[in-house]
Write a structure and sequence with these properties.
Blueprint (H helix, E strand, L loop, with lengths): L13 E6 L17 H6 L36 H6 L1 H19 L7 E6 L1 E3 L5 E3 L5 E3 L4 E4 L2 H8 L7 H20 L15 H20 L17 H13 L2 H9 L12 H14 L15
Parallel strand pairs: 1-2, 2-6
Antiparallel strand pairs: 3-4, 5-6
Helix pairs in contact: 3-5, 5-6, 5-7, 6-9, 7-9
Length: 299
């Protein structure tokens, strides 16, 4: 999906940092969400959290990087910049989401966005390495993005990698913010694994919320410029989003990694489920249709 060049990018809720040193610390998993379930809730990647976090509860996640400046946000001024630079695309997508969601959820407040590379010491969830992928921290209400993940999504997970696939990732993480505002994010703790567990239901609902945003993205005008944030969705845009959703399905990742599918350990849902719930949100534009916790919602 292409941004209208006349839209103006607002970076006021966005910050950026370069490669950070973790100092032997690890991502905080106590408090708030609690335990390892923070990873189940926050991470977009549908992989075993044990593969990206230390096995020893007292151990740290080391980083070898050195401090470096973050991305220069002054480069993000217009929709043309969003069409050219992935970092600006993340910020502009957040601007669009911040305009769509208040129309659907009166209590919506803007989350913060932080761009990083290598690793990041969060304000509320400890240290996170880039390997964990984009994530949302409920304790500081911030969505964290290392845009190198978009290359991983394409090269290692087989996504088509188009711009709308990237925007879908951003919308998914903002979906977790909506869940946090509604007080349902913690439901991921209830039966956190398995094909109908709380982890899967939480992630599929975030996919559905991403679809809801897509329903309105091309018709929502920016205050001040009176131009829509994005141009109308094409069939290729939808295909890109569905490709990204499919690429990070638990079943697809498990089969690629081990040659077998183990639904009992799912945390994010199958490729088919992720596509299905994104499509539900996109076709209806109704957040109420995203109740993945309803009896019989998952089959």
């Amino acid at each position: 999906m292409t941004f209208n060049e006349g839209m103006q990018i607002d970076t006021s809720t966005t910050s950026s940092s370069g490669r950070g040193g973790g100092g032997g610390r690890r991502i905080a998993v106590g408090g708030g969400i609690g335990g390892l379930l923070l990873v189940v809730v926050a991470l977009f990647l549908g992989v075993d959290p044990g593969s990206v976090l230390p096995q020893d509860q007292g151990a740290g996640m080391d980083t070898q990087g050195v401090s470096s400046p973050g991305f220069d946000l002054s480069q993000c001024k217009t929709g043309a910049d969003a069409n050219e630079l992935a970092e600006c695309r993340v910020v502009a997508t957040g601007n669009s989401l911040d305009s769509v969601w208040p129309q659907l959820l009166p209590e919506y407040t803007r989350p913060k966005v932080h761009l990083f590379s290598g690793g990041i010491e969060t304000q509320g969830c400890g240290f996170a390495d880039s390997n964990v992928g984009p994530f949302y921290c409920p304790n500081d209400q911030t969505a964290y993005f290392d845009v190198s993940f978009f290359d991983v999504l394409r090269d290692q997970f087989g996504s088509s990698g188009g711009p709308f696939a990237q925007e879908y990732v951003v919308a998914h993480e903002f979906g977790h913010h909506v869940q946090n505002l509604l007080g349902v994010l913690g439901r991921a703790q209830q039966d956190p694994t398995g094909p109908t567990g709380g982890g899967v239901r939480t992630e599929l609902q975030a996919d559905c919320y991403a679809g809801v945003w897509a329903h309105y993205a091309a018709i929502t005008k920016q205050d001040g410029t009176d131009v829509p944030f994005l141009e109308p969705l094409s069939d290729k845009d939808i295909a890109d989003a569905l490709s990204a959703a499919s690429a990070v399905g638990d079943d697809r990742i498990q089969e690629a990694a081990t040659g077998r599918v183990s639904p009992e350990s799912w945390t994010h849902g199958s490729s088919e489920q992720r596509q299905q719930w994104f499509t539900t949100g996109y076709q209806t534009g109704d957040p109420n249709k995203c109740d993945t916790f309803a009896p019989g919602a998952l089959r």
